[in-house]
Amino acid sequence: MVMNPVVSERSTVVVAKDQVSSDLGGEVAILDLQAGMYYGLDEVGARIWQLLREPNVVGEIQATIAREYDVDPARAKRDVLAFLQRLAEEGLLEVKDEPST
Q1: Distance from C-alpha of 32 to C-alpha of 97, rounded to nearest angstrom
Q2: 73-89 and 43-51 helices cross at what angle (nearest 10)?
Q3: In Å, how far are 37, 55, 57 from 81, measured between CA atoms?
Q4: Which residues contact 20 (CB under 8 A, 6 or more apart)?
Q5: What share of the chain is helix, strand, coil (3-state, %, to 5)?
Q6: pLDDT, tens digit (0-9, with 9 covering 90-100), for 23-70
Q7: Nearest to 81 by CA among 99, 98, 63, 69
Q8: Which domains does the chain show, CATH number per domain?
Q9: What DSSP line would sit under 12-48, residue for residue?
Q10: Which of 82, 62, 81 lies closest to 72, judged by CA?
Q11: How far is it, in rounded angstroms, from Cα 51 to Cα 99?
């Protein structure tokens, strides 16, 4: 049984290697090469996907979305975390937790 990673604000996240994606004029289409599944992202999802091309801390992604889309920070925090958790569960996202210090 494979355990799904848990995404937290301190997690570092990046797109998984076994996928290809294409920008479709503000939206993104993703093909999961392992599962053969297609996914479509709207404008906000596409922006988050863009931020995931390089390893990024979840808290920074949340702040960027709140600022760029003029969204309440608490809502951005909740919605971005839920979105990233779903991507992780679908295998489209690699989650690297912060090392303990």
Answers
A1: 23
A2: 70
A3: 22, 16, 11
A4: 30, 31, 33
A5: 35, 25, 40
A6: 998 899 999 998 999 999 999 999 999 999 999 999 999 999 999 999
A7: 63
A8: 12-94 (1.10.10.1150)
A9: EEEE-SSEEEEE-SS-EEEEETTTTEEEEE-HHHHHH
A10: 62
A11: 21
Residue 11 tokens, joined? 């997690």
pLDDT tier, 5 (very low <50, low <70, confident <90, very high otherwise) = confident
Q: Token match 């939206």: residue?
A: 27
For residue 12, the tally of other CB atoms under 10 A from its CB is: 15
Structure pTM?
0.89
Strand-pairing partners, residue 15, are 93
- In degrees and rounded to multiples of 5, residue 12 shows phi and psi of -100, 130
Half-sphere exposure of 14 (CA within 13 A, CB side): 9
> How far apart (Å, rounded) are the C-alpha atoms in residues 82 and 63?
15
